[in-house]
Structure formats: C-alpha cells, structure tokens
C-alpha cells in the first residue's frame, strides 16, 4: 500500500512546506480543449510533453486555502517538472461533477482527478462508462479498475493537534468546526477529540458542523458562538468555510482577545498569519497528486488500487512552523504520541 510513499517520505515534508507557500495562481477556468489523444510516450523535451492532466474541484473551489488548492499546487509542480499540460474545472455544485469529469475524458486527457470525498459517485459513474479512461480521486475509494484512490488517516494527524490544543488551552474550553458531516470530517473530529482527552480529560470540547465547505460566513458564525462560550482554541476541518473561522479569530485578536485557530490540510499560517494560527494539521494532498500523476507519466499507474497515507507514511502531520507558537515541551509530547501511534500502541478511532 505504501511502496511508493516509502521512496519519497524523506522529501515530502520539505516539498510540502515549499509548495504550500507558493500561492500558485490557478489556470483560467474553462474548456478542457484538445481534439487529439495525448501521446503515451512523448518524444523529446521534458518527459511528459504531450500529456494532459485535468482536475475537477469539489464545491470548495480551487482557492479554498485547503485541499483543493493543495491538489492544484501539486499539479502545477508536475507541469513545471515534467512538461505535462494541466488544467482544472471548478464545480459550483454536485451537479457539475459528472459533466466536468466527462469534459476531460471526452477530450482524451491522460488522467482526470476528482478532488474530495463528494466526488466519489461521479468518479465511479464516469469510470464505469469510460473503461479506457484513467481517473484518480482524493479522499474517497472508488472500486474500479481504471481508478486509483488516495485517502488519508486524518484521525492520526488530528490526534496530534488535539494534544497541542489540550496542552495549550488556558480556558479548558476548545472547539471544532466541521464542514459537511461525512466520514472524512468525522475522522478529523474523532482524532481531535481523542487527542484532547488524552492530555486534558477535563477540557470541554464543543463540536459545530456548518453543513458546507464553501461558506466562510457560516464558519465565522460558528467560531463566534464557540469563542463566545469561552473557548480559546478552535480547530476547523471545513475547507473554505474555515476561512471564516480565521476571520473571526483575527477580529478578536485585533480587539485584544487572545484566541487561536488550528488550520487544516495546508500550513495555514502562511495564509492567515502567526498571530492567529497555533498550528495546522497538514494533509499532503499535493504530494499524493504529484506521485500518482508522475507514476502515470512513467507508465506505473495503479488502476484499481487504494493507498491510505498516515503518520508512518508522512502523509499527515504538523508543519515546521508549529515551533513559532507551540512550546517545545508541547511539541515533545506530540512526538511521544506520534511514536505511539506509529508503533500501534495507540489506535486512534475514526469516529
């Protein structure tokens, strides 16, 4: 399951920190284009010249400051390194999933990505109807011989930021803001809850699901409710909705109230600043996208396979910037708990 990850684990953290800081400007949204199949073995120039790779976002959008953006940054890195042509289509609603996927498939793209759990049924439908096409998905498992699925052990990484929150809180009052109530977000919630409980069983944890990944105003309102109740740290797993959690925290810090947000998917201190970002639970979506896409270019696409990336694969974790706001003693505890999870001594629940 993790053979390709083992060869890159040593490089993943550094690559991720570089990529998450890039802030790549997305390609223009629009038609996928192209009326001829891309060559399977391009000749001359960079090794993937002639390859075409398309990415379909979920409703969070490519600028969600979260996993869609991370996936796009991964594809842009592939483009720079290999010469492959990469484009994205942004989904405004779930009704766009199948048409967007089909646009790339019909235009003979070498690989079509579906980003996010919500894309599962659409990817399955398109893959079944187009058995010669190659597709890949993040955050869901699609059982089809022409689809490669990549998921993450979010609960393991969330456990570690739960340890940070439990040991850092001054009020013993902590919050979690989720997007949609779906399995991937429940893994975040479960891991965070267990991490807090392990180090601070007396802490109060308030859970608030907004029901959306693309509504910053709902995230702001949810965070306001939790902070008003006395919480001083909120962890979000809500995509672009989580941007509103940061906005609420910034407003409070400006008024002299010290509160923290724990980011998700990317090192969100790079976007929202060290004044409000305690740490982030990184999912290395960019590295997963890079690896699978590069495997395709090299003729090693693993259709029908599922890969799950956790702490032992360096697929989830905390960024180096955590040192800015998390004490050395707390980070030492984080490492102790990480070792116990990797060894199997601690089994983190998924729900």
Description:
The chain has 351 residues and is of the alpha/beta class. It is 41% helix and 17% strand. It is built from 12 helices and 12 strands. It is globular, with a radius of gyration of 20 Å.
Top keywords for this entry?
12 strands, alpha/beta, six-stranded parallel sheet, six-stranded mixed sheet, disordered N terminus, 41% helix, globular, 351 residues
The average pLDDT is: 89
What's the β-strand tally?
12
- The shape is globular
Biggest sheet, strands in spatial order?
2-1-3-4-5-11
What class, by secondary structure content? alpha/beta
Strand residues, percent = 15-25%
Report the end-to-end length measured between terminal Cα atoms: 23 Å
The biggest beta sheet, please? 6 strands, parallel
String of helices and strands: HHEHEHEHEEHEHEHEHEHEHEEH
Figure out the total of helices: 12
**Weakly predicted, low-confidence segments:** 1-44
Helix content: 40-55%
Write the layout of secondary structure elements.
Layout: H1 3-6, H2 9-20, E1 52-56, H3 67-82, E2 85-89, H4 97-106, E3 111-115, H5 120-129, E4 135-138, E5 147-152, H6 154-168, E6 173-178, H7 183-199, E7 204-209, H8 216-228, E8 233-237, H9 242-254, E9 260-265, H10 269-272, E10 277-283, H11 285-297, E11 306-309, E12 316-317, H12 328-343
Parallel strand pairs: 1-2, 1-3, 3-4, 4-5, 5-11, 6-7, 6-8, 8-9, 9-10
Antiparallel strand pairs: 10-12
Helix pairs in contact: 3-11, 4-5, 6-7, 6-12, 8-9
